[in-house]
Amino acid sequence: MSKNIERIAVLTSGGDAPGMNAAIRSVVRSGIYFGKQMFGISQGYQGMINNEITPLNSKSVSNIVQRGGTILKTARCMAFKTPEGRKTAYENLKHHKIDALIVIGGDGTFTGAEIFSREYNMPVIGIPGTIDNDLFGTDFTIGFDTANNTVIEAIDKIRDTAASHDRLFFVEVMGRDAGHIALWSAIGGGAEAVLIPEKETHIDDLVEKLMVDLKNQKTSSIVIVAEGDHGGGAFKIAEKVKERFNYDTKVSILGHLQRGGSPTSFDRVLASRLGQAAVEGILKGKNRKMVGIISNRIEFTDLTLAIKNQIEVDESLIDLVNILAI
Ligand SMILES: Nc1ncnc2c1ncn2[C@@H]1O[C@H](COP(=O)(O)OP(=O)(O)OP(=O)(O)O)[C@@H](O)[C@H]1O
Ligand SMILES: O=P(O)(O)OC[C@H]1O[C@](O)(CO)[C@@H](O)[C@@H]1O
Ligand SMILES: [Mg+2]
């Protein structure tokens, strides 16, 4: 039996992602639309423990749909992993009479939400907000599209200088455990090769491919390396490749700029749809679910499944990189 929900709190947690603000805005305004009182928690679970919980109205979320980052701020909070930390967090929620929680984040955020919800019988819905696109139960996570656009803009620029100097560039993109950004940006940016955490890194094969390219008058190349690849990252791979043959080689680490910037239209619309669906879902009694989009339809998936069954890498995308790089 679901309890009557009148006061809903929202937080963002883990790494920030462009479009989180659009999701916050949608959650807050959808809640208000249904006559509910809405609250924002600062700095993810840290703010729950520190009692940083404030009411939000329609105006609180104006002029943010276009902004990167998160107005609620975010954090990685070790204390929430302890029963004592979660107890303090619960007492703070109780003090504010919060009936339900909407958490925007990635797999870690959902793990914490699942545990907390069971411990304290707190209804919770997760919204996938991470540039990594590594959650099962949604075709896309909020921020993935914007990050890809940021990366291909960088690749296009690097391509100009690579071609002018006949150079080989290793471009390292984010993805500690997931190669989705690497794969998508390799296709969109026309890279010659891609190295991802889901696959073994074979330097021999890479060197052979680059040598064939050189023989075929391809005088510059771009290799996309996900930060979590098994070769140890772009610098190490570049070193190993340089030992093997003579090619003017440079490394470019894109880093945290991939997490910033104004969200694309796709991410804004996705975030707005998921925010509204999260509120409607929780008011209809859904609990411990992630709201996602599958084949352009809103779908709810158990948080435990969303976390555990990370999307497998699409082999056809790897094939496509290779086919288009002949
Ligand atoms: N086992 C756990 N128990 C309780 N809380 C957890 C647990 N795992 C993660 N959390 C909470 O969730 C927060 C966010 O998790 P994490 O830092 O892994 O980021 P994420 O949500 O996976 O996002 P991203 O991977 O996109 O950065 C953690 O800092 C912690 O507060
Ligand atoms: O520097 P931070 O905040 O720990 O984030 C790094 C990690 O965050 C992610 O970008 C996800 O947001 C991962 O791909 C990356 O490894
Ligand atoms: Mg994560």
From TrEMBL:
UniProt record, GO biological process: canonical glycolysis; fructose 1,6-bisphosphate metabolic process; fructose 6-phosphate metabolic process
SUPFAM superfamilies, per the entry: Phosphofructokinase
Protein name: ATP-dependent 6-phosphofructokinase
Keyword list, A-Z: Allosteric enzyme, ATP-binding, Cytoplasm, Glycolysis, Kinase, Magnesium, Metal-binding, Nucleotide-binding, Transferase
Residues annotated as catalytic: D132 (proton acceptor)
Catalytic activity line of the entry: beta-D-fructose 6-phosphate + ATP = beta-D-fructose 1,6-bisphosphate + ADP + H(+)
Record-stated family: Belongs to the phosphofructokinase type A (PFKA) family. ATP-dependent PFK group I subfamily. Prokaryotic clade 'B1' sub-subfamily.
Residues the record lists as binding ATP: G15, R76, C77, G106, D107, G108, T109
Annotated binding of Mg(2+), by residue: D107
Location, primary (coarse class): cytoplasm
Binding residues annotated for ADP, in chain numbering: R25, S26, V27, V28, R29, R159, G190, A191, E192, K218, T219, S220
Organism encoding this protein: Solitalea koreensis
Annotated EC: 2.7.1.11
Activity control summary: Allosterically activated by ADP and other diphosphonucleosides, and allosterically inhibited by phosphoenolpyruvate.
Quaternary organization: Homotetramer.
